[in-house]
Specification:
Structural Genomics Hypothetical 15.5 Kd Protein In mrcA-pckA Intergenic Region, Chain A; five-stranded antiparallel β-sheet; 8 helices
Length: 169
């Protein structure tokens, strides 16, 4: 009588959009306001809003540091950036949401603590491949953003079109 319902309620369009948005938010570790800002920025740019939104998320500094393997998780990569272990084009950047551009050089600060953290993470991340749109030099703790990723290079875990529809209502 009070057990699990055999006939679960169907999700509404709103509910499905919300689920997809939350998937992306948690995947990239963003708060609602930050995520909304990403959507607003994608809306202003040219091109397909959903794809542009994913490109903005993928080219954030914390995400790229994660892809290089300098951080085991996106949260660890975010912390590395926040604690000042990462340099972009030779300057210390401690803003995880820093938007990277093509030909930006990301490197780990030349200090023992920073290098130890990166070495430990790189050992664990050997099974993960660095995406084609990034180029990594492991021994120099350096990486370069070769180009902005295309739709098929990102393998999103959520339907970004549902997210765009969710925000555009």
């Amino acid at each position: 009588m009070h057990g699990p319902k055999s006939a679960r309620r169907k999700h509404t369009d709103y509910g499905l959009g919300l689920i997809e948005k939350q998937k992306l938010r948690y995947y990239y570790g963003l708060m609602e306001r930050q995520f909304r800002g990403v959507y607003e920025r994608a809306l202003k740019r040219r091109g397909v809003t959903g794809e542009t939104m994913l490109q903005i998320l993928e080219t954030r500094l914390d995400n790229v540091v994660f892809h290089f393997g300098f951080g085991n998780t996106r949260a660890a990569a975010r912390q590395m950036v926040g604690h000042g272990h990462v340099k972009v084009n030779g300057r210390k950047v401690n803003i995880p949401s820093y938007a990277l551009k093509v030909n930006d050089v990301i490197e780990i600060k030349d200090s023992t603590v920073s290098r130890q953290l990166a070495t430990k993470s790189l050992e664990v991340a050997t099974s993960r491949a660095v995406p084609d749109w990034l180029s990594l030099t492991k021994d120099a703790f350096k990486g370069i953003v070769m180009r902005i990723p295309s739709r098929d290079e990102m393998q999103p875990i959520a339907n970004e079109q549902a997210v765009v529809e969710f925000y555009s209502r």
